[in-house]
Amino acid sequence: MADLKVTLIHSVAHRLPKQRKIVEALGLKRVNHTVVLKNNDAVRGALFKVAHLIKVEEIK
Q1: What is the CATH number of the domain that holds 40?
Q2: What range defines the domain where residue 46 resides?
Q3: Which residues contact 17 (CB under 8 A, 6 or more apart)?
Q4: Where are the alpha helices (DSSP H) in 1-60?
Q5: pLDDT tens readout for residues 11-51
């Protein structure tokens, strides 16, 4: 499986506490911060919960 490049594109201010914790657990700190994550079920589930706040790209 390929890795995923995840970028935070919207602020987590004024979001639900659960969504803030998910963004923090993904390793995203601030707007335009990017991390590379493994593509597995747990990560994809977390990304689905905050899909409106992030941009995801597949890295080969």
Answers
A1: 3.30.1390.20
A2: 3-59
A3: none
A4: 17-25, 41-49
A5: 999 999 999 999 999 999 999 999 999 999 999 999 999 99
